[in-house]
Amino acid sequence: MSFTTLGLSDPILKAIKEQGYTTPTPIQKQAIPIILEKRDILAGAQTGTGKTAGFTLPLLELLTHQKRATKKHQISALILTPTRELAAQVAQSVELYGKYLPFKSTVIFGGVGINPQKAVLRKGVDIVIATPGRLLDLISQDALDISMVKTFVLDEADRMLDMGFIHDIKKILAMLPAHRQNLLFSATFSKEIKRLADGLLNNPALIEVAKRNTTSKSVDQTVYPVDAHRKRELLIHLIKKNDWKQVLVFTRTKHGANKLTKQLEAEGISAAAIHGNKSQGARTKALADFKDGNIKVLVATDIAARGIDIDLLPYVVNYELPNIPEDYVHRIGRTGRAGNEGEAVSLVCIDELQYLKDIEKLTKQSIKKVVLDGFEVDPTIEAKPLSKRGQQRSNGSRGGSRNRGRGNRNNRSRS
Hints:
By secondary structure, the protein is an alpha/beta fold. The protein has two domains: 3-208, P-loop containing nucleotide triphosphate hydrolases (Rossmann fold), CATH 3.40.50.300; 219-384, 3-Layer(aba) Sandwich (Rossmann fold). Helices cover 42% and strands 15% of the residues. It has a seven-stranded parallel sheet, sandwiched between helices. Strands 10-11-9-12-13-8-14 form a seven-stranded parallel sheet, sandwiched between helices. Helix 14 links the parallel strand 12 (315-318) and strand 13. Helix 3 packs across helix 4 (84-97) and helix 16 crosses helix 17. The protein is globular and about 70 Å long.
């Protein structure tokens, strides 16, 4: 099957061809025809499956057959994402595939000045890609009207809920018109996602390109048991011995990301950290340097890593296992993308063994364990289980994010 069989018009097909794509991915094959029928969809798609093009391509096609909004501050399509990085990635996709179409799009998120965003909206746009907090800020200041939206996309809905955006999402839904098309994408399905889908979607088509909460077969997974105080030493050993050129490393906390980055640089390994406390400029630069090969290691927290889209990223390292097992699926989904193979390495100390059991239970697989010579675990060390509550609060995950959701101002500042 080629893109020419999916019902897309020539300007869009031309843009696809210029990007070097000829064959749609499974999510694109399934989603595009259904979206073009103007049906709601609930799509389960992991990162790296081509889901962004799976909704941007038909969205652009639909707009070519619709009347454009009559008032400048009104828009026709709204794409809601959980993080700045993902919003920027989706905006790039819209721009690339819509380059031969007359539609205007813009991306809006917090962490940068609001006035330039207002200025763009005043000129009139058709498509807005946004994070929840800044979107609500602009609506409250009468800079944007979403009451005429014809297509609403909720991307990475599972992460939205993890970050405590449910209250903001409900506010946004209340402002949208009753009659519209809804597209919900989620890498994992939970009871909360099903509940959200039931209230949002109208007789949706269910699309799943992988079993729920499963990891990609194109990613080789390995666990290295190691004492906690030797993790840094082992990571440096793996990078240097294997001559890894591009490695995405996950830590549980922002402080941990900063500390590890400094330690790597002290060992002569170029590195940068990316997390919620970094300015948008610093995050953009770090990601660009990583993609361009100017730095070997990008150290990230879970939230900041959403939206990192590098087709050929070869290695992901879990320096610390996530306390929420679904986040493991998201993390290792950063490699093995677009048909390429990848490697996911986890450095697991005795304190994290329960996290590992939770991950293996969720993904229904046993991850291979490899003990490296010289890094054998000290059998005299006793486990001291890590406090989930403390980790969640420090990383902005489930526990702490729900509290932030009640105080929208604080929540929005990180959007």
